[in-house]
Amino acid sequence: MTYELPPLPYAKNALAPHLSEETLNFHYEKHHRGYVNKLNQLAAEKPAWAGKSYEELIKTESGVVFNQAAQIWNHTFYWKSLSPNGGGAPTGKVAELINEAFGSFDAFKEKFSAAASGHFGSGWAWLVRDDNNKLQIVSTHDAGNPIKDGHIPVLTCDVWEHAYYIDFRNDRPKYIATWWNLVNWEFANSNLNQQRSFL
Amino acid sequence: MMITSRRLLNNAAKAPSRSFSTAKKFSLPALPYNYDALSPVISGNIMELHHSKHHNAYVNNLNAALEQYADAESKNDVGKMIALQSAIKFNGGGHVNHSIFWTNLAPTKEGGGFADPKFHVVQAITKKFGSVEAFVTKFNSQTAAVQGSGWGWLGFNRNTHDIEVITLPNQDPLSVTGLVPLLGVDVWEHAYYLDYKNARPDYLKEIWKVVNWKNVEERYLEASKK
């Protein structure tokens, strides 16, 4: 069984002018595809874990295998967290839960932006649903994924430099401001219906 | 009683006053060469961003953290002092690492890339790794494998008097390992992305053309002094 790179949910130029076609080209074809290629290389030696789903690998593996599997999963989730028709204020269940957990969308926006800008080094900022069905903001380092802590991911923002360097250079806060123009609330709502366990 | 009052007076004179520690201000060191001096190995575009934006931000954030730390210290707020430690490590480490890095590089016309066989450090490298090429291969392979952001280092071990290749995550300075830094290579994406995109191994292959071996030798001689 070979691991496949899931297709991008939209054309490479679909997120422009917010995120350029050049960024999507490199981010998807080089970085995301690179993780899939590497995982397949490792799987070719027929280790015990070969054939397990990304979620299983995230839960059970560590080191270089975890890094590839988690990064494949994280990036797939990231592409879906964005939409050419995204942006604006949340609606539906996620809007309710945001108000409950953070008081208001603006308060949530400020907190999430701070978590994303303030994360030191490579990583991800997540909106997750925790054990008590409450929304929380968590950040993970490098390839870290909140499934490992039993959270249900709702949205993510990639803060590795490769996610924003072409379009924003060192200006991560400006990139995050742009992320809000693309955020896919429909996807967030669909994740709220996820079962407890990802397996 | 007289003795008690004298003791009280003495104690009052020794009572701890507001801490005098004013936060030291660190500053961005000047580059020893122009922004485009290392081109085409590292473009002027990257050098300018790397020095004037990234390194500068570490310096500014370090100073801000230290100011807050001094304030917390003056209020005996140990909890706040502890909370500031990670910001001091991130930004202080960033400042230390980049300050070393700029001196570790030089334009080819100033000796960049030339590992003079007369250098003691080059001899130590040859002795330990077989050749400079073998050392570079090992250094590059370890450094390319850094997950996320970090640095590759050649360090000097004062206990064993040996040189070691090691990588560290984020902006952790080499000092956390006890090794003395001789040569560091930044593999945060900002160090190479505009020129090499995701091809970190290509960047690592090229950077040796501008490694300032004179500086590595100076650091080695200093570190290995008895």
Explain this structure to me?
The complex is a heterodimer of chains A (199) and B (226). Chain A has 8 helices and 3 strands. With 199 residues, chain A is mainly α. In chain A, α1 packs antiparallel against α3 and α2 packs across α3. Chain A is globular and about 50 Å long. With 226 residues, chain B is mainly alpha-helical. Helix content of chain B is 51%, strand content 10%. Chain B contains 9 helices and 3 strands. Chain B has a 3-stranded antiparallel β-sheet. In chain B, α2 runs antiparallel to α4 and α6 packs antiparallel against α8. The longest helix of chain B has 31 residues.
Strand order of the largest sheet of chain A: 2-1-3
Average of pLDDT of chain A: 95
User: Radius of gyration of chain A in whole Å, from Cα?
Assistant: 16 Å
Q: Can you write the helix and strand succession of chain A as a string?
A: HHHHHEEEHHH
**Range of strand content of chain A:** 5-15%
Structural class of chain B: mainly alpha
Q: Write down how many β-strands of chain A occur, each being a DSSP E stretch of 2 or more residues.
A: 3
Q: Tell me roughly what share of residues is in helical segments of chain A.
A: 40-55%
Q: Quote the average pLDDT of chain B.
A: 92
Q: Outline the low-pLDDT stretches of chain A.
A: none
From the spread of the alpha carbons, the general shape of chain B counts as globular
Element-level helix/strand string of chain B: HHHHHHEEEHHH
Q: Number of helix segments of chain A?
A: 8
Mass-distribution shape of chain A: globular
Strand order of the largest sheet of chain B: 2-1-3
Report the uncertain regions of chain B: 10-20
Distance between the termini of chain A: 19 Å
Cα radius of gyration of chain B in angstroms: 22 Å
What profile does the largest beta sheet of chain B have? 3 strands, antiparallel
Show the largest interface: A-B, 19 and 19 residues
Oligomer classification: heterodimer
